[in-house]
Amino acid sequence: xxxxxxxxxxxxxxxxxxxxxxxxxxLVKTEKGFVMCGYLDIKTAEKLxxxxxxxxxxKSVDDLxxxxxxxxxxxxxxxxxxxxxxxxxxxxxLS
Length: 95
What we know:
alpha+beta, Hypothetical protein Ta1206 fold, 6-stranded mixed β-sheet
């Protein structure tokens, strides 16, 4: 597992890259929620009441920051995140 320190706005956040058997699980967690790759389940995040967003086709934290949000939970939407914004833009609202 690789941990990557990221500057989002004026806060320091942590990204994770976990090499699985056939892909890399990528996630950036903030104080209010997280942006994750499609490896993880948005339905579970919704059920648990998390503010979560999904990007697809990423292999690294850098990819995640530049990829577009394709799904999100209702809690993430209430924080002002919109479909199509970048992972970085979503993380700014989640920080």
